[in-house]
From TrEMBL:
Residues 208-258 form the tRNA-specific 2-thiouridylase MnmA-like central domain. The record marks 114, 323 as: Interaction with tRNA. It is an enzyme of class 2 (transferase). GO terms for molecular function: ATP binding; tRNA binding; tRNA-uridine 2-sulfurtransferase activity. Keywords: ATP-binding, Cytoplasm, Disulfide bond, Nucleotide-binding, RNA-binding, Transferase, tRNA processing, tRNA-binding. CDD domains: MnmA_TRMU-like. The gene is mnmA. This is tRNA-specific 2-thiouridylase MnmA. InterPro entries: MnmA-like, MnmA-like_C, MnmA-like_central, MnmA-like_central_sf, Rossmann-like_a/b/a_fold. Catalyzes the 2-thiolation of uridine at the wobble position (U34) of tRNA, leading to the formation of s(2)U34. Gene3D superfamilies: Adenine nucleotide alpha hydrolases-like domains (2.30.30.280), HUPs (3.40.50.620), Translation factors (2.40.30.10). The active site is at 89 (nucleophile), 186 (cysteine persulfide intermediate).
Length: 344
């Protein structure tokens, strides 16, 4: 059994590499250039792997990354939605294209530095569940990865905490090539997605009216793509009470805003569902996360054609269309994930 360890040069992938080597596995390190290839970065990561006596390979996937992650990211904003590029990258690139390249090099499995747990369940088979570090858990971002691909994955950090990993590496005197934390969206400079989209020449539409639900005009918006459901800050309008983004009317180019009393959502509609556990095995107690930092909330779920209708036990702030809805059972095993179409 040969394992490819995806290495970025950072702390997490270094620890995964070191752990599997010390456990005696047949491994090699594999770095993917998702952005334009950097010879300097490749050499630095290669030197790090050489110091650990681990074979190193690098593959250039930046054109595929552009097609599978960057272009859909831009398209979603053009259509007034809020995409989740990290979840898409995991499904299409890290456990898609990179896994494919790893297999070409002779690997049977691919290991990464994700904070999530993969275990065998007698009823579900191979399952994904939350990482033991609540601040770093990445099960939400992995919920779109198809089950067949996850079955070839290993997550050595799943039951670890970030602070312990840093301490263990420091004790051994082993340093990553790039110790700083990666930015939120790797291909967006300075995490400024607005500047990125403008620089790329995306057809983002023009400004328009900002209205209350009854049609009262309270201000102007600068383009619907710049706003997210539930947003309060940055609206640039003075009113007798704080206003929030309720929804975006793309057809009329109108941003609908309102007070907090109008903000609450009773649920959401989810499409493109990736089932990690067959629907017939889902229990009655279900929870979802519709944003990364959200604690799992109890829901009732029904099916309508190819959609999931998610109803919250208690009203919530509206989720953003285009984001991921991750479904868990009561033990926080991931049952699947899909894309939020709209709130209810």
């Amino acid at each position: 059994m040969t394992i490819a360890v995806a290495v970025s040069g950072g702390t997490d992938s270094l620890y995964a590499l070191l752990t599997l080597k010390e456990q005696g596995h047949d491994i090699f390190a594999l770095h993917a250039h998702f952005l334009a290839p950097s010879k300097e970065r490749e050499e630095a990561i290669g030197a790090m792997c050489a110091s650990l006596d681990v074979p190193f390979h690098a593959v250039d996937l930046h054109e595929e990354f552009e097609q599978c992650v960057v272009t859909p990211f831009m398209d979603e904003y053009i259509h007034g939605r809020t995409p989740n590029p990290c979840a898409l990258c995991n499904a299409s690139m890290k456990f898609g294209a990179l896994l494919r390249e790893a297999e070409k090099l002779g690997a049977n499995q691919i290991a990464t530095g994700h904070y999530a747990v993969l275990e065998d369940n007698p009823l579900y088979g191979r399952t994904l569940s939350r990482g033991h570090d609540p601040k770093k858990d990445q099960s939400y971002f992995l919920s779109l990865v198809p089950k067949k691909q996850l079955e070839k994955a290993l997550f050595p950090l799943g039951k670890k905490k970030k602070e312990d990993i840093k301490a263990e590496l420091a004790e051994r005197g082993i340093a990553p090539a790039y110790p700083s934390e990666s930015q939120e969206i790797c291909f967006v400079p300075n995490d400024d997605y607005r500047a990125f989209l403008i620089d790329r020449g995306a057809n983002l539409g023009t400004g328009g009216n900002m209205e209350l639900a009854d049609g009262t005009v309270v201000g102007k918006h600068n383009g619907l793509w710049q706003y997210t459901e539930g947003q309060r800050k940055g609206l640039g309008v003075a009113w007798k009470e704080p206003l929030y983004v309720i929804r975006k009317d793309m057809e009329k180019n109108v941003l609908i805003v309102g007070p907090k009393t109008e903000l609450l959502s009773t649920g959401c509609v989810v499409s493109n569902m990736n089932f990690l556990v067959a629907k017939e095995h889902w229990g009655e107690k279900l929870l979802v996360r519709t944003r990364y930092r959200q604690l799992p909330i109890p829901v009732t779920i029904s099916e309508q054609d190819d959609l999931l209708i998610v109803t919250y036990d208690e009203p919530q702030s509206p989720p953003a269309s285009g984001q991921v809805c991750c479904v868990y059972d009561e033990n926080l095993t991931v049952l699947g994930g899909g894309i939020i179409e709209h709130s209810l």
